[in-house]
TrEMBL record, chain A:
Residues 1-28 form the signal peptide. The lineage of its organism: Bacteria, Pseudomonadati, Pseudomonadota, Alphaproteobacteria, Rhodobacterales. This is YjbH domain-containing protein. Keywords: Signal. InterPro entries: YbjH (IPR010344). Pfam families: YjbH.
UniProtKB/TrEMBL annotation, chain B:
It comes from the Bacteria. Coiled coil: none annotated. Transmembrane segments: none annotated. Residues 1-21 form the signal peptide. This is YjbF family lipoprotein. InterPro entries: GfcB, YmcC_sf. Keywords: Lipoprotein, Signal.
Amino acid sequence: MVSCSGLHRGVVFSLLLTAIATPNRLWAEVDSTYNTYGYPGLIDMPAAVSPPDAELALSFSHFHNNTRSTLTFQFLRRLSASFRYASIQNTHLTSATGAPVIHFRFDRSFSLHYRFRDETPRWPALAVGLNDIIGTGVYASEYVVATKTLRHNVRVTGGIGWGRLGSMNGFSNPLGLFGSNWRHRHQMDLDADTGGELKLGDLFHGDAAFFGGVEWQATPRLKLIAEYSSDSYDSEDGTTFDRRIPLNIGAVYRLRPMTTLAVNYLYGSELGVQLSMALNPKQPPFSGGRDPAPPPVVARGTPAAELLEVSVAEADKPALETRLRDALAAQSIELRGFSLTPTIARVVISGGAPNKTAQNIGRTARILTAILPTQIETFELIPLSHGLAPSQVTLQRRTLEREEFALDGSWASYAQARIAPAEAAALPPETSFKRFRPHIGVYLQPAFFDPDEPLRADFGLQASAQFEPRRGLIFSGSLRKKLIGTLDQSTRTSDSVLPHVRSDGYLYDRDGDPAIPELTAAYYFQPGDDLFGRMTLGYLEPMFGGLSTELLWSRNDSNFAAGIELNYVQQRDFDQLFGFQDYKIVTGHVSGYWSLQGGFDLQLDVGRYLAGDWGSTITVERTFRNGWRLGAFATFTDVSFEDFGEGSFDKGLMLTIPVGWVSGDSTQENYATVIRPLQRDGGARLKVAGRLHEVLRAHQRPGLKNGWGRFWR
Amino acid sequence: MTKWPLILIALLCGCSRPAMPDLRQQITRAQIDAAGQPLLLVEIPALRNAATLAPRSRTGGVTTWRSRDDVSLSFRDGLVVATRRLGDDLMSAEIENSLRLLRGQTDAGYVPRFHSYLDGEYQTLFRSFQCRAGSRRPERIEVMGRPHASTRIEEECRGPDLRFTNIYWRGADGTIWKSRQWISPRVGYAEIERLHR
């Protein structure tokens, strides 16, 4: 029965007005935060919410005998991926009553949380999640959860859980309809399990239970939560802590836009605290604009350009070259080659941060307008990377004069530029440049997630040098002296049945003081169109030395590249000086690299690994156009899970942070790290600096295009 | 790897910012006259930063002024069209309508104004605003001890989620002696005075 009274219409109208007056607010008022496991949720339970796309959060949660540190990345708009490092004290080895108790346990686990349906005015948001999919199974659980905003500041969540989340007041699995095997789940057994295997067979199996909760955004910064937990903490109850009631309450306070502090009262017995800090690769602290202002364009026909009205024939070329070199050096760009024809200037440059190549090109072009005779109409700029010249950027002087202050000057300069492969054979002769580049600094080498100690690190001095006697031939080396550190405290003797290609790492850390992590001669060359080559000889990495060769096919404008790498290496002595051990191996891979739409890179390597095992590695990375990269990899080889040992197969997370993102200027360095839950000997790949795809990526058309916004920066 | 401590420090510490330097106390009329070139005094309250800028180049009607620490502001007829090294920089701007508005050449309606920026991934981001003339009245102002007869003109602009009001003190010959111009969300307003020699 539809009522059309004036009152009713008034209410609808005022509701509409509220909706209009607070656009997007209706479903965004309640703050979405991370739970004690570090994934999106309530207190200890999940919720069907997602943090903003690309948010990277680190959360630390502690309550009696339970500490969880979790790194969660919003890999897709709907998909959160977490890596967790937990320490649990006095826990039972299995969830069976009367199982033996172990004093202390560090545990690593992965989680995935996927919100597959958005909230609508009538229907809740829905999410599904998997916890501890390839770990030991301590936290193994799955859930389907629904979350609905009731009023602008109240939100309710309800869901059904399996595994751990089906342990409190559990009932027979409704999925048992599809077969009785859904009703059974293997019991977690920390003693027998090496972890790491994908336990897909157990997902959504066994008893299920309901959980739920309500969130109330009391003030813009403070959120109060009450929840009913379906986790009975069977293996922890009574020894780790006393789980009295299935109810939790908590308060979350937003200290800063991306930092929250929570205080929880858990299971009727324990007080817990949690700190979550996030950053977003899409939001650099300084908007990337702390480089010194660029040199100006000097337009022909203006008084400033009068001095340039000489013909190319009568121009003093050595003097021009000197002026050019000095002006480029002021921008931290190196002049590597220079030639003039009556109307064309060819300029080879190097230096600067890789993701700011377009900025360097823009600055070089502006400098040229202030130095070169007015007859020169065309600038051909060739940025070098490790002596390779993947691209040539051709710019018209007229465009620069016209577009410097145009509203769409950045797009105009890109559209009017020609980006093509450079002809390596036709590069101008090399000018004199700084061939020897020494550097003395400090280093910090962290080691995460050792089974005995979550974080160890060494800190010390590092002297390094590069010498490039001619284009493409690069000698480099570094020497480290530890000042202070704990890396040598690891005493976990390797129990690996494979050749100890990585698992003796702690011996290298202990004996390598001082150490020579790297001492190599590398030669980069272009044997043909779209073909690039590398040969590296020497002490390639802390644990191996020898010869590494690589050939890469990579078209300038293609989003696919393929390469082959072949290495013959010998294991180095633990002291990381000049000696070798007996172990020798031929190792190598065939690799394919794809750049997918939307900022995802996919890499597949197939070949032979350091321990002589054959297999393949798949790597997926989310890439940001400001140079951030975040991804994960997994390697499967013919080594059995049993022979591999704890972890079952090699996998890990990769993180690259451009230092310039933090500082706001054009620092060349990247901070890159690989986080492995555990380093074993199977599926281990040789580490060589300056692999070709990495070296070329930012200098080919797609990379230049991504950075072109900075052309006029 | 060596920059890891730097990253940690930058991420964990909120940067404590010093008070804005008060250049007015430090600059004297004699110094301005001795400079031998025109100068701009630019103060940016949100960044707590202030500097004097000298003209550096002129291309196609745009003059770029630069400070000694390599911050630059570029102007077309007294209106900011680009900034560099302020962080959240104005990359470019289309301000022809605003210039007409200043000269009193448009009727009372709104005219568009366009800005471009770089977003967090350094991609070009355009923002457009609708602007109209606000109050307009004669006002005698003093810039570093020197009086100027001027017209005080307000330009009121609004975009989808931003609004700002620029104020210009314009001399009879069109010189903008003093202005307050909005740059970007993080930089806010720049307060600019022309220190005539």
